[in-house]
Amino acid sequence: MLKRSTRLAVSLFFVPFAPALRALSQASPPPVYSYGPVTDYSAALPNASDVHRFRRGLRYNSPDSSGPELGEQSETVLIGADSVSFRRNPLPFRESDAVAVGIVTGGQAYLSDDKREIYSEFKFAVREILKVPTAHYIQAGDNIDILRRGGAVRLPSGKVIVRSLRDFSMPLVRKRYLLFLKYNSGTEDFDIVTGYQLEGEHTYKLDTLTHSQADSNNELIHPLRDQGENEEQLLNRVKAIEPHNQGES
Fold first, then answer.
1. Which member of 21, 41, 103, 224 has the lowest number of beta carbons within 10 Å of its beta carbon?
2. Taking the CA atoms of the chain, what radius of gyration do you get in angstroms?
């Protein structure tokens, strides 16, 4: 038994290093859908004295002004569906004001001004610009605010309320992304049009933009789809869409 164990240890020791790393990378599970960071109710409240915060919250007010504010009586999880996603361009370069590569450094959820909806805001450290917005110049090294409808808020009782769109995942803090962004001049921030999580040899779609039989389950937490390209391949394909200004990485 001892001799057999020794032979096994030696054989493992001499496995080529690079192929072993590739095997470990391939064995890693894909990232999963995120509804964003859970934020305490007191920290998520709108702030009328902060002009940008007030305007951002106003943008996400519920179209139904007769509905109750989010609270203990609210449904714990409500998952919306966006039929527009069936027709969305997976690489919406021309439709976006900015296209950038960077790292999400922080994030939290907020209540809309009417306290009937939730939106999430993230800090995005820009590392490379693939398309510079004409209305608001940004460059590598800048930190920008990026927003997306939905999120999770923890009430004082401990109950967590989630408002989300199943096909549109939130980015994760400390992860790298290629993001397609739409600029909001009134609040000096960017909405996420779509994006890709960058993991070296693998890239993963933040959103499900086309559907098949495989997407028929209604579970909120599900694996993100592998794009089928590594970082270099994906970024090169985006850069080839049309001439544009590039920042330094």
1. 21
2. 21
Task: Name every residue whose Cβ is closer than 8 Å to that of residue 197 and which is 6 or more positions away in sequence.
Answer: 31, 171, 172, 175, 176, 177, 203, 204, 206, 224
Task: Note the pLDDT tens digit of each residue in 83-113.
Answer: 454 567 899 999 999 999 999 999 999 999 9
- Looking at residue 28, its pLDDT comes to 80
| Span 111-151, pLDDT tens digits | 999 999 999 999 999 999 999 999 889 999 999 999 999 99
The predicted pLDDT at position 243 comes to 54
pTM: 0.83
Q: Do the Cβ atoms of 175 and 151 come closer than 8 Å?
A: no
Phi, psi torsion values for 44, nearest 5 degrees: -95, -10
> Do residues 149 and 155 touch, judged by C-beta distance below 8 A?
no
- Other beta carbons within 10 angstroms of residue 87's beta carbon come to 8
Supply the pLDDT for residue 94.
93
Alpha carbons 58 and 76: distance in angstroms, whole number: 23
| CA separation for the pair 156, 200 (Å, rounded) | 40
- Which DSSP symbol is given to 83? G
Domains of the chain, with CATH numbers? 31-239 (2.40.50.120)
Strands 160-165 and 77-80: parallel
